[in-house]
Input
Amino acid sequence: MSSTGAPLGMLAELTHRCPLACPYCSNPLELESRNTELDTDTWRRVMREAGAMGVLQVHLSGGEPASRRDLEDITKAARDAGLYTNLITSAVGVPPARLAALADAGMDHVQISIQDSVPKEADRIAGYDGAYRQKVALAHEVTRLGLRLTVNAVMHKHNIGRVAEMVALAVSLGAQRVEIAHVQYYGWALKNRASLMPSRADAEAAVAKIEQLRRDYQGRIVIDAVTPDYYARLPKACMGGWGRRSLNVTPSGRVLPCHAAETIPALEFWSVRDHALSDIWEHSPAFTAFRGTAWMKEPCSTCVHREKDFGGCRCQAFAMTGDARVADPVCHLSPHHQIVAELAEAGGEQAFAYRGR
Ligand code: SF4
Ligand code: FES
Output
């Protein structure tokens, strides 16, 4: 590998097909159709190339990755390439026998999204009756098989008051980790911002609660959480910095620095159909566009934090200002910070625009 270093993780979006219809879906507005998906052999090659580059972990994701009949073959290829293999699943339509087959193929870890600790609310957010029941059943199966489990809890206005119940649920399911993620407002979630964004008071109460939960559950479960973007003073290093730690391969084989990168116009993405993964990582225009700090404008270019947060999220900077090179407006030093401050106080309510299936 060159001076760029190897990515630690690869998100393999095997398909955009999904049984759920979450109003904060992070997949692109234009979903890639089944007939454009990479075939099994190409995914096998991608796994080999990832392993050879030094990638440590692969996250098999979607949509719902189990929609693919060859998920076991792809899992085996990942394992054979020496990758730690994580399944990110909705758990809907994944029977115990399928999970056992995936475990046999070499799956190491399973991450299940649970929309709420209240079953009826969870099903309402997912837009799928009975989803909660299937998720809890599969989580039990994961731990019964001896696989490691993470519960992914996406928080927003409708469930942020139940952060303690979500953590308690994850503990009761035998999870080793719970990831408290806040909705990020680009792509589909942008349509639902008014109905999803928690108030400042609720967001701050949740942050304090999480600190308390970390003390209460110390040694029993790892709680991963960050301050909701709109209420932070400094941005986070989105993706650990653009083109520094991870890459995403879309169902059709386009390779992106982050899952929302296609929302930034004029970036040129290369495909695994035409290029080796290492070539894309090191040389493709999309990966080099915002790697490092040379692309930055003021105030980032001279800021003491620039090697720490890398200017925050490029997709959010573009979504709010129309310029992907400016500081993430979440930053209090950004000349555009007022946009975030106004949004944070805006509030509002509307019916969910569910993601179409
Ligand atoms: Fe980060 Fe830029 Fe803000 Fe400095 S000015 S803290 S580098 S976003
Ligand atoms: Fe693209 Fe943050 S989501 S850089």
